[in-house]
Amino acid sequence: MREFVGMSIRPVKRLIRSKPTRDGAGVHLRRAFGFGNTSDFDPFLLLDDFRNDVPEDYAAGFPWHPHRGIETITYVLAGTVEHGDSMGNRGSIASGDVQWMTAGSGIIHQEMPKGDRAGRMHGFQLWANLPGSLKITPPRYQEVKAPEIPTITDDDGTHVRLVCGKFWGKTGPVDGIAADPIYLDVSVPPGKRKTLPIETTRHAFAYVFAGSAKFCNASDPLSVPTEPVGWADTAPPSAAENRSLVLFDQGDEVMVQAGDDGVRFLLVSGKPLEEPVAWYGPIVMNTQAQLQKAYQELQEGTFLKK
Fold first, then answer.
1. Using one digit for the tens of pLDDT, what is the confidence trace for 154-174?
2. Looking at the domain assignment, is residue 7 inside a domain?
3. For the chain, what is the largest distance between any 2 Cα atoms, rounded to a whole number of angstroms?
4. Of 36, 105, 127, 149, whose CB count within 10 A is highest?
5. 233 close to 226: Cβ distance less than 8 angstroms
6. How far apart are CA 274 and CA 261, in angstroms?
7. DSSP string covering 4-62, please?
8. CATH classification at residue 17
9. How many independent structural domains does the chain possess?
């Protein structure tokens, strides 16, 4: 792939360490962003990184719970996630698989993580908002197995898994998504510098989960460490214990300089909806009245639509 000439590098707007939290029935995970003002990430609402090798920390899972007004994207790297829902769907997503669930008008489901033979579990869940016109759309699933996800390897060894959207002339398997997202799993070899195109109109972020890198501004590069060292340290760390989120400002492309052990990160972008957000727990609407109605329907047993 040729590098683009005359493009504007997206500056780093914010660097965020994912924070330990618990969700579901006590699952230990790290939250990169979510709950609070997420306008900088619009149309995305939340990103969770669930990586653990202690089954007791995740085995209780995410028992039956509702969703309305959003889409959830689950990407599994190790172990499996068994799921079921109020529409009668049952299944399991394994290493490399993706499940894209459009909650729409309402769904009740459960997600139960299971470790691999070594007890390891790793995956991500991203929430994407639905525009007001689609918040009452019928719920649906798109489940994509690992072999169905296109992979692209550039001449310098950069490797991209294309979960959703169009990139470098290929199209991902997930379609019909309101926010028109591009969801990439990118690996850049040690010491390599790479520029990756992103349309100016999109909000974009990277989430580093292995190795280390510098994401370069037009002026000075900013180091993005993934272990507990200061942001000012320029020596790229070798471990990837702590997760690092990079929120980009406007521009046509992002530039990444991989560290000594290379880097692997999610690169996600989407077109902002620019709509009001009324959000409580697993339900996201446009107004407080809509939100209150959703919870009232949940109590009255009229939440699920036919």
1. 999 999 999 999 999 999 988
2. no
3. 59
4. 127
5. no
6. 39
7. PSSPPBPPEEEEEE-EEEEETTTEEEEEEE-SS--GGGTTEEEEEEEEES-GGGTTT-E
8. 2.60.120.10
9. 1
